[in-house]
Amino acid sequence: MATRTLPVSKRGLNFEMFMWAFTRFTVIAMYGLILVGILGALSISARTGANFGDILYWAFFPHLAANPLEQVWMTILAKLMVTAFILVVCGHGVHGVLEILDDYFTSAGARRWSRNFIIAYAIVASLIAMYVIWTS
Amino acid sequence: MSLRRNISLSSGLSYRGGSPYLAYIMHRIGGSALFIFFTLYILSLLGMSFANAIFGNWFVQILLLVFGLFHVINGLRITILDLVPRWIEHFQLAFNIQWIVYALLAGYAVFVVLRSAFGG
Fold it and tell me: Quick check: A100 and B32 CB within 8 A?
């Protein structure tokens, strides 16, 4: 299979190109946040002697886990990381679900309403998630 | 994208696209599974107990893990090949590595869920 030779400057920045880049960068952000979460949890486990289950719990549910070192900045950092994760997941997911819906809703009206619905869903879900994260 | 498709469901299912086609379909199913997971997670955060009950079911856990893991691993392969186009020449090798990693992780995940559900 041949490699692509078209430079970025000639690809243009249309909607498809923008959404392609957006989807790729949000997924890289997700992988980055997961990696930072796991490394942070590993760092804490070295100090507290925690097991593998604790490490995964701190990495993926840091806003729910009890703060093992009882430092306020860690709690704030954990909440910020989860908030960032929720937002990039919503951005990535909205585009993915829209791609699938566009394949099955063929009329222009149905596509417009599916777009409105999924974007509204993402906004509402993000707001609920952030409310729960910052008040828990 | 064309608004007309003249492909029946049986024709679509019998399409022999091989490993890339299977990955494409499973990536979509995995994305949909993660969307359902995200929705249930939000509902459980809101304190709706039925969402927690669904999460507690071993069959739901297996479905979410098997398809969700595939979405994550396949997405990583797509992202790497998109960002480093010269590696597309090694597309088949990347696919083989992906399937091996997926089989190991999904197999272990299913084993853990089943052991937890039935093995005590």
Answer: yes
